[in-house]
Structure formats: structure tokens, C-alpha cells
Amino acid sequence: MAGLYTTADVLITSHVTSVIPDYEVLEVENRLLDGSFHVQTIGQPARTCAIDLIVTSVAAKETIDTYKSIKTPVKITGDGKYYIGTIRGLPQWTKNAPGIYQTSLVLLVTEEGSV
User: Fold this and answer.
1) CA pair distance 74, 100, nearest whole angstrom
2) Mind listing the pLDDT tens digit for each residue in 66-81?
3) Kind of pairing, strands 37-55 and 74-78?
4) Taking Cα atoms as reference points, which of 51, 50, 43, 49 lies closest to residue 25?
5) 25: Cβ–Cβ under 8 A, 6 or more apart, which residues?
6) Distance, CA of 40 to CA of 42 (rounded, Å)
7) Could you state, in order of their start, the residue ranges of all structural domains in the chain?
8) Residue 56 and residue 64 in contact, taking contact as beta carbons nearer than 8 Å
9) For residue range 13-51, what is the model confidence (pLDDT) as tens digits?
């Protein structure tokens, strides 16, 4: 079951609708004199994780906002794996009903493993 937790395994929300791990690559693309392309990869790919979730309390929303603002790592689980990292950017919240909010996050993964 997917869920968003603190690194101390305290549940923030169990309403995680998608967890999509990916790699972010820094590339420089150059066009050569003969018209062909040369793509240079800089460094190693960085692990990221796209997350869609719903919180059912203002307290859970404020927890995510606080963890984001002070760069505290969080833990996401899904499909038998876990990912720990900090939240990139500012969560853009949608209010679905009183006390129910929805957002999409990108986690900058520092640790991953099997649950």
C-alpha cells in the first residue's frame, strides 16, 4: 500500500494515487558542422520520484508544507519499494472539499530500497 511518511515512519497520508520513479539527466546537445548531433551527459543521472497524493486534514497539509520549507526528508512507499528524499519546489494545492487537499510532488531521492 502506498503512503507518505516521515523518516521516523509516522504516516502523513495513505491516499497516494501514484508513485512514479524516474531518473533526471543533465544533457548538453550540440549540432556538429556536418549537421549531426552530439549529446553529452554531464555527471550521473539523479533519482527522482513523481508523487500524486491527497490529504484529508489541514494538519497533514501543514506537515508537508513544513517539511518542504525546512528541507526535511520524507519517505514514500509504493509497489514494494520506498524512496526517501526532500520535496522539490512548492506544492501547488487544490482544495477538493473542506479539509481535503490534493497535490503533486517531486521527491529528490537520496535513498531507496525494498519495503
Assistant:
1) 20
2) 999 999 999 999 999 9
3) unpaired
4) 43
5) 41, 45, 46
6) 6
7) 3-114
8) no
9) 999 999 999 999 999 999 999 999 999 999 999 999 999
Please give the full DSSP string across 51-115, using - where no structure is assigned. Answer: EEEEESSHHHHHHHHHHHHTT--EEEEETTEEEEEEEES----EEEETTEEEEEEEEEEEEEEE-
d(CA 94, CA 103) in angstroms, rounded, equals 6
Distance CA 81, CA 74 (A): 14
Domain 3-114: give its CATH code. 2.40.30.200
For the segment 58-113, what is each residue's pLDDT rounded down to a tens digit? Answer: 999 999 999 999 999 999 999 999 999 999 988 899 999 999 999 999 999 999 99
